[in-house]
Design brief:
Blueprint: E1 15-19, H1 22-25, H2 38-42, H3 61-75, E2 79-83, H4 86-89, H5 99-114, E3 118-124, H6 130-133, H7 142-158, E4 164-169, H8 171-179, H9 191-214, E5 220-226, E6 230-232, H10 237-260, H11 265-271, H12 282-286, E7 292-296, E8 301-303, H13 328-340, E9 346-351, E10 360-361, E11 364-365, H14 368-386, E12 391-397, E13 416-419, E14 424-427, H15 429-444
Parallel strand pairs: 1-2, 1-12, 2-3, 3-4, 4-5, 5-7, 6-8, 7-9, 9-12
Antiparallel strand pairs: 10-11, 13-14
The structure holds beta-D-fucopyranose.
């Protein structure tokens, strides 16, 4: 198949990157004074992780960061999205700061600048200090102010060198998968707790943004949401109502307070006793101006009222996660965001990519399916821009094969292969393609 990006031209100032997160790549989980995170603890729960693995070693990025930054720079991207491990810089989530941990991120950020890479930092990519979890974690309103302290400390230390700063990565995942379904850390299964957690995450985002701005932060400030078009399986009223509600829970529950200062009434009504407790003024605090919205996109979601839909029915190619490959959903999503939330600033694709059953043969990974996935989704972004959507960035998930949460190391999302026995990195064909694509964009600029 021909490359759908071949004739496309993106603006010269478009941000191209790769994304990772601390817990998934760093390893060194007990090194240099790092505290325990909820994911360190969760991995010890029998049956929690498909391959019974953990984040103790991961990709050894804590030791190999310089080599990894060289690799990123060699791709020709101009940006790197990474996250800070809160318990690495503040082991118990309050009080004492860990000098060695802060020094690591200092070196990392300087290393990016030295290689011409813009640092895009995420504060919370799920690895809350376990000590805070013992006090209720995100279900405890006091965690909101712990997070604001953490945000300010990171800004003080690194803020002068950051291109952007994200408060939370995918609050829906932390709330729903972590506190309702219980399949992610901290493994709680209670709907009311999950909704309370979502409110505290939003509140802590708003409060942190307010504090960071008051502090004179120069980096662009935003939040990252996981979003997907929600399609009804059939046009029946029941399936449509289900899709509407699920869209409410995934998207509007976060976007409405961020952009409009209120929770969506239909979702609120559907929650019954599980609605979160709020204090006077919370919604006003949540609705802070954003400099960008980060969008993580992987697939669409199809809803049927009786729960009978399976991705197999789509007739589309599925990734190794069983996710339907649906690039036009990204165009649809971007158009919808700009239409329904015109107050949103620039949209940044902060994650997009796929897991595929890669094979390393003679030093090469011929991952055509991933290359096609990236091409089709980059073309879908371009299509949305042609139709007038302001998109400022695209970042591939992920730089490296890494710890894919409850799936452990069994799913490979990297454009660079990692041999976990030797820690050897091998750029896959998709990385070579991305590199060529970026070279061409530079020439066209
Ligand atoms: C997203 C996460 C990221 C990664 C991808 C596959 O939900 O933000 O850490 O696991 O999915």
């Amino acid at each position: 198949m021909s490359d759908p990006t071949a004739d496309l031209r993106f603006p010269a100032d478009f941000v191209w990157g790769v994304s990772t997160s601390a817990f998934q790549i760093e390893g060194a989980a007990q090194a240099d004074g790092k505290g325990e995170s909820v994911w360190d603890r969760f991995c010890q729960q029998p049956g929690a992780i498909a391959d019974a693995s953990n984040g103790l070693v991961a990709c050894e990025h804590y030791q190999r960061w310089a080599e990894d930054l060289d690799l990123i720079a060699s791709l020709g991207v101009n940006a790197y999205r990474f996250s800070v491990s809160w318990p690495r810089v503040q082991p118990t989530g309050q009080g004492e700061w860990n000098r060695a941990g802060l020094a690591f991120y200092d070196r990392l950020v300087d290393g990016m600048l030295a290689r011409g890479l813009q640092p895009h930092l995420t504060l919370n990519h799920w690895d809350l200090p376990q000590a805070l979890q013992e006090q209720g974690g995100w279900a405890n309103r006091a965690t909101v102010d712990r997070f604001v302290d953490y945000a300010l400390a990171i800004e003080r230390r690194l803020g002068d060198r950051l291109a952007s700063l994200v408060t939370h990565n995918e609050p829906w995942v932390m709330a729903e998968l972590g506190h309702h379904q219980g399949i992610f850390a901290p493994g709680v299964k209670d709907r009311a707790t999950a909704m309370q957690v979502s409110h505290h995450l939003l509140l802590s985002h708003g409060r942190a943004l307010k504090a960071l701005r008051a502090h004179g932060a120069k980096a662009k400030l935003g939040i990252v949401l996981n979003l997907a078009p929600m399609h009804p399986a059939t046009p029946s009223p029941a399936d449509r109502a289900k899709a509407q509600l699920e869209d409410g829970l995934l998207a509007r529950w976060y976007l409405d307070p961020l952009c409009r200062g209120r929770y969506p009434a239909d979702v609120w009504a559907s929650l019954g006793d599980a609605v979160p407790q709020m204090a006077e003024g919370d919604l006003a605090e949540i609705q802070q101006p954003l400099d960008f919205l980060g969008v993580n996109y992987y697939s669409r979601t199809v809803q049927s009222a009786d729960g009978s839909w399976s991705n197999q029915q789509s007739g589309r190619e599925l990734t190794d996660m069983g996710w339907e490959i649906y690039p036009e959903g990204l165009t649809e999503l971007l158009l919808r965001l700009q239409r329904d939330y015109p107050q949103l600033p620039s949209l940044w694709i902060t994650e997009n990519g796929g897991a595929f059953p890669d094979e390393l043969k003679d030093g090469r990974v011929a991952d055509e399916a991933r290359t096609r996935y990236l091409q089709q989704h980059i073309a879908a972004v371009h299509e949305a821009m042609q139709e007038g959507v302001r998109v400022g960035a695209y970042m591939v998930w992920s730089l490296l094969d890494n710890f894919e949460w409850a799936f452990g190391y069994s799913k490979r999302f990297g454009i660079v292969h990692v041999d976990y026995a030797t820690q050897q990195r091998t750029p896959k064909d998709s990385a070579r393609w991305y590199q060529q694509f970026l070279q061409q964009q530079k020439k066209k600029a």
